[in-house]
Design a protein that fits this description.
There is one protein chain. This protein is α/β, with parallel strands linked by helices. The chain has six domains: 6-97, LON domain-like (Archaeosine Trna-guanine Transglycosylase, Chain: A, domain 4), CATH 2.30.130.40; 103-224, Methane Monooxygenase Hydroxylase, Chain G, domain 1; 231-281; 294-471, P-loop containing nucleotide triphosphate hydrolases (Rossmann fold), CATH 3.40.50; 477-560, Helicase, Ruva Protein, domain 3, CATH 1.10.8.60; 575-758, Ribosomal Protein S5, domain 2 (2-Layer Sandwich), CATH 3.30.230. It contains 28 helices and 25 strands. The strands form seven sheets. The protein has a seven-stranded mixed β-sheet. Strands 1, 2, 3, 4 and 5 form a five-stranded antiparallel β-sheet that branches. A five-stranded parallel β-sheet has the order 7-8-11-6-12, with helices on both faces. The longest helix has 53 residues, at 170-222. The protein binds adenosine-5'-diphosphate (ADP).
């Protein structure tokens, strides 16, 4: 209570009610004192401040039997001088205190204005502005009154208010009030900042909560996505069961935790789900039991494959070493040879024999390192590399992986896949193979890798170094016949649901099938042809047209149409300037005639037929050799001044290269320049030197097979290749006469149909 303040409050203490009733019956005056402890109900003079306000009762209103409401107006400051306890309420002798007034000078005006300003600020900041409060404040023009008014309307502690009530110096009082106001303003400011912060965080978390709930409702309505929290705990359970190395475990656990924090339908959650699904389903500790039984392996390889003795022997030796020294990491086997010669199928048999799971990864055309090593999982459409995908597919960490066609790897701006493969194949590194997608090391050391290539020369050098190359060669007719009879036909019969009784093919028809309908190094096309015969038979049986089919030559023609490859009627005529060369390609051997034409001119040498640089150089060597030996060869010394020379290798669109056409070109040139015909049934191969020596070449088996198919009778080969004749097919050797040559004179003597050239070697023995 302050002077000039109107207050109303409820009273229910009996002595207080008695006091009011007494006051009403007398002069309506009451002394309002503050209790030192508001909770105390038994009040006597000691529990009261003696300094208070003399007030006048303005109104009394009975609320109920126990409570009355009074309206009081403060009149002036007063002090109880003596308490009297005669009645049932407290009475006191009161000294009313006259207020000191101050002069209306600049100081007091300034203080009033400052106080008003602070109070207005306080009201604004504490959001308690009411127009009444402001208007009333302006009504007070006295220092003391202003102080009292402000004090009465501020929620500060009663002790502070009491002490200022007792302060009768108005200036001091107002000063104290401005200090309080400044302090309160600071407090309110801090309070406001706190509540803004609090409100923001509450708003944000509430908003997120609502959005999450909404999203959950939407996705459950759509029937998609589940609660990442429960999914994450499933992942964690899986992870714990895997018993991974600590570093790997920790990393995956972190990803599980990330997963649990993600909203259930976002792009990232799906990426992470795929990632965790993949990583946790990898066969970290799952392997198949390997059986290294050499005898059993040998049996299986023999049973599944005809011939290929050398290959089988090398594979068995490899297994024997592995059995004796399992810890020693050997080299990687590379099977190199033309298509369809059984590379893939022998590896499959090996996997069967070893009890390892088998999977093939085709490397043909792979030009991007990430195909091997994967993309980082943050990329859109990121995937693990082929190696770990394959391992995940077979669900075993010790499968036999066949890396097919390693010679067809390409290299582009996206990195070199060969370098990534090196890491896969190198036993020093592959126990910690790092796939970028999985992002934790995976142990590939238990995996057995076998590689295949069509042309071993195209294998990237660093990979080639780590490989043990096993060559497979093209099959002869006899071999093809046996493979077809003992393997392909029974296998295809089974696949087509046929038996010996309802499908058979006689030997003559089978030979015709091989010779007339296929031309290949391996047996793939042959297998396809056999299966098309069987499809026809199966159809006839199902359609009720026949009960069985035994195929002879005539029926073969009816089903497959006219023969595709008839033996050309070779020109048996000996010709000038045309020589049969022999070439080796990755799909087997071929005959390659070389033609030379001479025209009047000035010694220009023209070479056509998509020849590579090495072949072009062979042509230059041939010309130089002839120029330096013209006298011996009986050729006009000035031929290069009077003729232009054109050398051509037909089938001009097919690129050709290699040094082995050297002898062929020289012979064709000599034939053209000396106008001597070349025997049409002679073919040749060999590299030459400027001095006329003949150097050995590769692919003899394939080349001689091609000569045999063409009906060539004599093949001239470099003496250095004599040992390779062992590998040449028996049928080929039976029907072809081989001439070993270590110099060009021997070649000319056997290829050119003129005595003059025979004389060249009369002194030597061939
Ligand atoms: P590559 O991998 O060398 O291209 P494949 O292994 O695919 O060839 O062989 C083609 C088909 O020929 C397969 O069905 C395979 O079983 C069969 N084949 C090849 N060589 C033999 C062989 N020596 N004995 C039995 N079958 C063979």
């Amino acid at each position: 209570m302050f002077p000039r303040v109107v207050l109303h409050f409820d009273i229910s203490r009996k002595d207080s009610i008695a006091a009011i009733e007494e006051a009403m019956s007398l002069n309506k005056k009451l002394l309002i004192l503050t209790q030192k402890n508001a909770l105390d109900d038994n009040v006597d003079e000691k529990k009261l401040y003696s300094f208070g306000v003399l007030a006048e009762v303005k109104q009394v209103l009975k609320q109920n039997d126990e409570t009355i409401r009074v309206l009081l107006e403060g009149k002036c400051r007063a002090q109880a001088v003596e308490f009297i306890k005669e009645k049932n309420f407290l009475e006191a002798k009161v000294l009313s205190i006259n207020e000191r007034k101050c002069d209306a000078d600049a100081l007091s005006e300034a203080m009033i204005r400052k106080a008003r300003e602070l109070f207005a600020e306080y009201l604004g900041a504490s959001l308690r502005v009411t127009t009444d409060l402001i208007i009333n404040l302006v009504a007070y023009e006295d220092v003391g009154e202003t102080a009292d008014y402000i004090l009465a309307n501020m929620p500060i502690g009663f002790e502070e208010k009491q002490s200022l009530l007792e302060e009768n110096n108005p200036l001091k009082r107002l000063q104290a009030v401005t200090v309080i106001l400044s302090r309160e303003n600071e407090i309110v400011k801090i309070q406001n900042q706190l509540s803004i912060k609090l409100k923001n965080t509450i708003d944000k978390s509430q908003k997120e909560y609502f959005l999450r709930e909404q999203m959950k409702a939407i996705s459950s309505e759509l029937g998609e996505g589940s609660d990442p929290g429960s999914e994450a705990s499933e992942y964690k359970a899986k992870l714990n069961a895997l018993k991974l190395p600590p570093a790997v475990h920790e990393k995956l656990l972190k990803e599980c935790n990330n997963f649990s924090k993600m909203p259930s339908v976002s792009a990232e959650v799906n990426l992470l789900r795929n990632y965790l699904d993949f990583c946790l389903s990898l066969p970290w500790n799952t392997s198949t039991k390997e059986s290294l039984n050499i005898e059993k392996a040998k049996k299986i390889l023999d049973k599944d494959h005809f011939g290929l003795e050398d290959v089988k022997k090398r594979i068995i030796e490899f297994l024997a070493v592995k059995k004796l020294a399992p810890e020693v990491k050997g080299q990687i086997i590379c099977l190199s040879g033309p298509p369809g010669v059984g590379k893939t199928s022998i590896v499959k048999s090996l996997a069967k024999a070893l009890g390892r799971k088998y999977i093939r990864i085709s490397l043909g055309g792979v030009g991007d390192e990430s195909e091997i090593r994967g993309h980082r999982k943050t990329y859109i459409g990121a995937m693990p590399g082929r190696i770990l995908s394959a391992i995940n597919q077979v669900k075993s960490n010790n499968p036999l992986i066949l890396l097919d066609e390693i010679d067809k790897l390409s290299k582009d701006y996206k990195g070199d896949p060969a370098a990534a493969l090196l890491e896969v194949l190198d036993p020093e590194q592959n126990f910690e193979f790092h796939d970028r997608y999985v992002d934790v090391p995976f142990d590939l050391s238990k995996v057995m890798f076998i590689v295949t290539a069509n042309d071993k020369n195209l294998i990237p050098a660093p990979l080639y170094d780590r490989m043990e190359i096993i060559d497979l060669y093209s099959y002869s007719y006899e071999e093809k016949f046996n493979i077809a009879k003992n393997h392909l036909i029974p296998k295809q019969r089974k696949r087509h649901g046929l038996t010996k009784r309802n499908f058979s093919i006689n030997d003559e028809a089978l030979r015709k099938l091989i010779e007339g309908y296929t031309r290949e190094a391996g047996v793939r096309e042959l297998e396809r042809r056999i299966s098309s015969l069987m499809r026809k038979t199966a159809y006839d049986i199902v359609a009720g047209k026949s009960k069985s089919s035994s195929i002879d030559s005539k029926k073969l023609g009816l089903i497959l149409g006219p023969e595709k490859y008839k033996k050309d009627k070779r020109e048996i005529e000996n010709r000038v300037g045309v020589v049969n060369g022999l070439a080796w390609t990755s799909v087997g051997g071929e005959t390659m005639p070389i033609e030379v034409a001479l025209m009047k001119g000035k010694g220009k040498v023209q070479v056509t037929g998509s020849l590579g640089n090495v072949m072009k150089e062979s042509a230059q060597i041939a010309v130089s050799y002839i120029r330096s030996n013209s006298e011996k060869l009986g050729i006009s010394e000035s031929f290069y001044k009077t003729f232009d020379i054109h050398i051509h290798a037909p089938e001009g669109a097919v690129p050709k290269d290699g040094p082995s056409a050297g002898v062929t070109m020289t012979t064709a040139l000599v034939s053209a320049l000396s106008r001597t015909p070349v025997y049409a049934d002679v073919a040749m191969t060999g590299e030459i030197t400027l001095k006329g020596r003949v150097l050995p070449i590769g692919g003899l088996k394939e080349k001689t097979m091609a000569a045999y198919k063409e009906g060539i009778k004599t093949v001239i080969i470099p003496s250095g290749n004599e040992n390779d004749l062992k590998k040449v097919d028996r049928v080929v050797k039976d029907s072809i006469n081989f001439i070993m040559a270590d110099n060009l004179e021997t070649v000319f003597a056997h290829a050119l149909s003129s005595k003059k050239f025979k004389k060249l070697i009369s002194s030597k023995d061939c």
